[in-house]
TrEMBL record:
One Gene Ontology cellular component: integrator complex
Designated name of the protein: INT8 protein
Family of the protein in this entry: Belongs to the Integrator subunit 8 family.
Compositionally biased residues, Polar residues: 11-21
Region feature (Disordered): 1-21
Acyltransferase listed as a keyword: no
Listed InterPro entries: INTS8, TPR_INTS8
Residue ranges annotated for the INTS8 TPR repeats domain, each copy included: 506-679
Localisation per UniProt entry: Chromosome; Nucleus
Biased composition (Basic and acidic residues): 1-10
Amino acid sequence: MSAEAADREAATSSRPCTPPQTSWFEFLLEEALLEQHLQKPSPDPPPVQLIVQFLEQASKPSVNEQNQVQPPPDNKRNRILKLLALKVAAHLKWDLDVLEKSLSVPVLNMLLNELLCISKVPPGTKHVDVDLASLPPTTAMAILLYNRWVIRTIVQSSFPVKQVKPGPPQLNVMNQMQQEKELTENILKVLKEQAADSILVLEGALKLNKDLYVHTIRTLDLLAMEPGMVNGETESSTAGLKITAEEIECQVCYDLGAIYFQQGSTNAAVHENAKEKFFRTKELIAKNGSSSLHFTIDEERLAGYCQACGILTSSSDDASQQATPYSQIHNCMKSGNYQDLVKIFLEDNLTLSLPVQFRQSVLRELFQKAQQGNDALDEVCFKVCVCNTVCDVLQGEIIDIQFCLLFLRPSKEKIDFLLEVCSRSINLENASEALKRRMAAFLKNLCLGLEDLQLVFMISSHELFIKLLKDDERKLLIDQMRKRSPRINLCTKPVTSFYDIPASASVNIGQLEHQLILSVDPWRIRQILIELHGMTSERQFWTVSNKWEVPNVYGNVILGIKDNLTRDLVYILLAKGLHCCAIKDFVHAKQLFAACLELVTEFSPKLRQVMLNEMLLLDIYTHEAGAGASGERPPSDLISRVRGYLEMRVPDIPLRQVIAEECVAFLLNWRENEYLTMQVP
């Protein structure tokens, strides 16, 4: 054996073999293999991917002797492949929520049409003309499933989707994407034409008031046999998975509510129908519990729908709906009554009834209006941001960067309002010790971040501060502040000592720069930079250390950020993260990258993608140095992200060659050969 061959042998044998992915054709050869595969804890390939593979193979066109393309033949092989796809869907209990998340519109359309076909629904039959009560339970359920999907797909297609810009031209990939897009558009056009019929079918289903059954793997096996042998069993009331009448009503009401809500944008009266359906869904879930259902309903989305319907359909005799915080905020934003808006947020800080995401969305909307030239909103933005920040503090969440930016230039008025919010957000008599500790820590950190002694005194002499911090804690805080900044003299001695003489600004800046170089804590780095920028606006602190290196492709984008503080913070977090990655300090690298990702997400989609790419590379290194070294296969999520990176075609995103190389090496190491051979070089 040559030296080269020996090296190759050593390289391949150093990593333990991982079981290869089961190929689609193996399920054709061994009948029992599918059920065994689906029972595994984490089957590879996963069920939804199997559906795609089976239907893709079954729908491949053939070529005759004259080299003419023919439709897929209706032979035994293709019929078995379609049956296998149906069995996988039956294993997933026909949960449309699961299927829609992973299957494209053309694939799901083919799957549900196969379900109609095997359930003995004659092709071309208008479902609205069929009497569901007279049909076998599994046939009626197949029609319901199809028409529910029609409605859901129409609703889903009405939501705005950010278009992905095409990357470098690759003819076969572009052709495939274009064909799928055209096919989806054609299917949607047909579905929209039959929307009215589907609504009538579902409204009719609400009057059935009887249990139905959906196909299982067993009933599908029976249907695949001779029809004469199984007619009695498949059409009886005990075949398949039982779906109760109330569960059917719950499914149908939710889907009808969604389509009525969508139609309400052009016909306000339809919102009453949507409200009726959503409130009935909510009632049924409350009665039976969501855990007893064979399908999933997004209860947060349902609650949002109910709130929206309550606002849109509120009338003079519907005082309870009118009184909800959501409707009040909606009216305040609409009328420009921002004083009452702040009051609602302030009152909610005590009850915490508004979800954090909703609070953030209102603040984002206010910021957008302020950026469009409405300067009067700057104060409103600050006040709502303070309310949100105090709410976050009480719930143990991280303080948002937006608050720190707004507090770069604190004033007496700002501190006054902040202390008012803090006082009205906590009831000291009933508050838990955890809440008191969080509020105390927030006020202490606020004092440590302030330069102006008068502002510090405003906080430290406030009634809330005195109640939350004991005497020894307050003394310790004063000592900390004296060590942190020699310029602030909180000493009560009448005679000035040598140590109370204020240090020069250059000495302070030098000390803080030294801390900035040594620190790997994102929070501390941000605090130091805020202090440095408060001292001088002339310096660029990303140049403090010549060891902070960022690739040129990233540097050009980062140095284009206009705000000096944000530019320094992004550059330093990324440079320190890359350095930690290089020395295999993956824990600190992850913290630094995560902080940088949170920061850039606010203002730059381009830098957000850069950070996601760097975090992917970090996760690859972390796995290879940890679980991968002992032969443990990487999680499917990581493999999917690696594939996603290699398939990404987003223009204008700065890319590092090393990330693509590591992604390919990662897939080669873990035997993803079939996937790699499918990719265009």
